[in-house]
Amino acid sequence: MEKKRTGARSTSTSTSTSTRSRDRGRATRRRLIEATARLCKERPGAEVSVAEIANAAGVFPNQVTYHFGSKDSLLVHAAFLGLLHDARRIERIGRQAPDAATFRRNIARAVLAMPSLPSVARALAAAISKPELAPVVDRHLQLLFRQSERFAGRIVDGRGWKARRPLDVETRTFWSTALGAVLLVRAGAHGTVADLDLAGALTIHDEAEPG
User: Fold this and answer.
1) Read out DSSP for 108-141?
2) Do residues 93 and 106 touch, judged by C-beta distance below 8 A?
């Protein structure tokens, strides 16, 4: 009987230790992502070193590769964390619009001014040149699309508005247009994102509008 109790205690202790280790790992990952996002926001366009990231997160530099495999992978996570935070602020702007035309216009202007867009453009470019990053980018994009689709659905249902295409297509088309425009500008295409009619990528409308 004593051996059984000892074995049970040993198993319980092992499980508890494993849980604490996983919790510490998740906390470290979170600190690294948040520190990287903060550095990229403070120094847009500048190269951020592993040592700087580790110092800002209060961890050892080798934990970057331990938890993410590479600095590029961490940069992708951080870029999309910033994008998702920005997207939530965009939702607040959208909810304040009195009509659908203002909604489209305000959403488009706010998205093109998001501070996270340059970092996301770099993340997308990195995924093109490094296929191992593609699954990481895809997971974050799917999260962005789902979050935006839920928001659009609440707006449309709550206001009695309509969209001329399914909301999943609406949100993917909108974000693909916005991100594509940023990539073109960063690649050296003539003009700026301000030249883009991003509002035209949205088909959400109210009954007062024709069509």
Assistant:
1) HHHHHT-TTHHHHHHHHHHHHH-GGGHHHHHHHH
2) yes
Q: In terms of C-beta density within 10 A (0-12 exposed, 13-18 middle, 19 or more buried), how is residue 2 classed?
A: exposed
pLDDT value for 199: 92
The residue among 120, 123, 114, 104 whose CA lies nearest residue 193 is: 114
**Assigned token pair, 157:** 């249902």
Per-residue pLDDT, 25 = 78
Provide φ and ψ at 95, rounded to 5°: -65, -20
Residue pair 89/147 in contact (Cβ under 8 Å)? The answer is no
pLDDT tens sequence across 92-123: 999 999 999 999 999 999 998 888 888 888 88
Q: Are 71 and 53 in contact (CB under 8 A)?
A: yes
Closest CA relative to residue 204, chosen from 173, 174, 161, 168: 161
**pTM for the predicted model, two decimal places:** 0.78
**Cross-strand bridge partners of residue 205:** 162
- Please identify every stretch of the chain with a pLDDT value under 70, giving residue numbers as ranges: 1-18, 21, 45, 186-195, 208, 210-211
In this prediction, residue 194 carries a pLDDT of 63
What integer pLDDT is reported at residue 7 of this predicted model?
56
Reported residue count of the chain is 211
Nearest partner of 53 among 82, 76, 33, judged by Cα? 33
List, in order, residues 6 or more apart from 127 with CB less than 8 Å away.
76, 133, 134, 136, 137
Tell me the one-letter amino acid at 91: E
